[in-house]
Amino acid sequence: MEIFTVAVAGLLIALTFFILRRRSSSADNLPPGSFGWPVLGESVEFLFGKPEKFVGDRMKKYSPDIFKTKILGEKTAVICGPNGHKFLFSNEQKYFTAFRPHPMQHLFRSYKPKESAAAPPPQPQQQQPPPSSKATDETKAIRQPGFLKPEALMRFLAKMDSITQQQLQAHCAGKNEVQFYPLSKTITLTIACQFFMGINNPERIARFVKNFDDVTVGMHCIMLDLPGTIFNRANKAAAALRKELIAVIKEKKAAIATGAPLHDILSHMIVASDPSGRSMPEPEIADKIMGILTAGYSTVATTMTFLMKYLGLNPDIYERVQQLEIAAAKKAGDLLEWEDMGKMKYSWNVICETMRMVPPLQGTFRDVLEEFSYGGYTVPKGWKVYWTVSTTNMNPKYFKEPERFNPSRYDEGEAPPPYTYVPFGGGPRMCPGKEYARISILAFVHNVVKNYRWETVDPNEKVEGDMMPEPQKGLPVRLFHL
User: Fold this and answer.
1) Which PROSITE patterns match (predicted)?
2) Which of 392, 369, 366, 383 is CA-nearest to residue 80?
């Protein structure tokens, strides 16, 4: 027995020495920073102290280029500034791949079919792909059929314009004051449901909005599943959305069986199969559609909302956005055409400036595929990298008078330096929905300035939220009908 004990002790000592030696080879040159508290790391400061402040404070304390932390359960390197943007975008799939934080993995779970009795047992050496792998990436489902290519969006533009007009009429007609954040969300989700799923059911969409709000907040939170917590509400909302989406899928299947055309991504998912001939199970389709809708929902609605705020605070900019020449060239009932999008260059400048002032998404995460060096420091394989847009947006080195809302800074010849303004990311993982977001917000701007003037009720309304900002009171505005 003593010999066995001594052998085990010797083995443990050798194993400990081996682990420490491996760690020391790369850990000696880790980026500066702190992992914070045991288990929680610095997640509380990151989530509740606002990510942009969290990053800005540590850039000043540790390094303006890179620092280490532990957030949402992962050792993480935060790479900052335009050089950081360039390095990240240039090394996708070499050093980095997409990573979903654990709360997001749980909410948009990877569907695993039950094993049948006839199925062969898994091989011991076979590795299953992680939830963050390409196999579960919604962008793959979007890119392949070409739904977000200009020619597809060109066909949908008139419908987008029509939906925007209908929603503004339904929620603003005869009213002197409107909360625009809830309205922006309804408009955005109505357009998304029509585009991605081919449905336009106001009652169903109204149910969607509250659940998508809870899921969006829960994507970056502490995973404490107790009654009343953010994560608990998000779990319940995701389950409700999944149930509703499966009902939509069944309805869509029945329509396809009768010969309905395949004009949307949901229909494509239903009829598609993998190389083995396996069709995608309904729960998996529901999860992918839920991810797609979430991605195209809150960010677009947030930009629409804060655009309303800045136009309300800047009447001179509103005057330039009015686009009277586009409206004058159209007869009653005419809808926007693709050529009109090219005439809205200043409106796009306003949208860009809105996203600089209030980024609709603070950042995203990457998984480190291979150990790499950056800024004189080493980041080990298996760590995560946090990419954030907020390290350049308000830097006077890149944006003169950064606190001033100035759309003219994007005029030709005045554009910001490369990699300083990247609201849609860059490289192979640039947001595939950039053009969809652009035309949906332009259609909104065109219709709202054509029909209304407005002023913000509270110019100093606070902005809440962590990864995704929102106005504390829903941005109430006083409307003046034209």
Assistant:
1) CYTOCHROME_P450
2) 392
Angstrom distance (rounded) from CA 247 to CA 331: 40
Alpha-carbon gap, residue 98 to 363, rounded angstroms:
12
How many whole angstroms separate alpha carbon 17 and alpha carbon 351? 56
Nearest to 218 by CA among 246, 244, 237: 237
Whether 188 and 212 have beta carbons less than 8 Å apart is answered as no
CA distance 232 to 235: 5
| Residue 101, both tokens | 């934080």
Phi, psi of 364 (to 5 degrees): -140, 170
477, 178 in Cβ contact below 8 A? yes
Tokens matching residue 201: 């059911």
Report whether 444 contacts 336 (CB < 8 A): no
Percentage with pLDDT > 70 across the chain: 86
Classify strands 384-388 and 74-79 as parallel, antiparallel or unpaired.
Answer: parallel
> CA 39 → CA 69, 73, 75, 117, 341, distances in Å?
12, 7, 11, 40, 50
- pLDDT digits over 8-33, tens only? 444 444 444 334 444 444 457 999 99
- Strand 96-99 relative to strand 66-71: parallel, antiparallel, unpaired? unpaired
Full 3-state SS string of 447-479: HHHHHEEEEECCCCCCEECCCCCEECCCCEEEE
What order do you get walking across the sheet with 363-368 strand by strand? 66-71, 74-79, 384-388, 363-368, 96-99
Q: What is the model's pLDDT at position 118?
A: 37
CB atoms within 10 A of CB 117: 4
The answer, yes or no, to whether residue 127 has pLDDT greater than 60, is no
pLDDT band at 272 (very low <50, low <70, confident <90, very high): confident
Which residues are CB-contacts of 374 (< 8 A; sequence separation ≥ 6)?
A: 65, 66, 77, 79, 84, 87
Torsion of CA 46, 52, 58, 60, to 10 degrees: -160
**Alpha-carbon dihedral 66, 72, 73, 78, rounded to 10 degrees:** -10
With beta carbons less than 8 A apart as the criterion, state whether 190 and 163 touch: yes
Q: What is the CA radius of gyration of the chain?
A: 25
Token reading at 122: 């898994």
How far is Cα 33 from Cα 114, in angstroms, rounded to an integer?
A: 44
Query: Which residues are paired to 279 by β-bridges?
Result: 273
Instruction: Tell whether residue 80 is among the known ligand binding residues.
Output: no
Q: Contact 215/290 with Cβ under 8 angstroms?
A: yes
Positive or negative, the Cα torsion across 283, 289, 295, 297?
negative
The packing angle between helices 434-451 and 345-357, to 10°, is 110
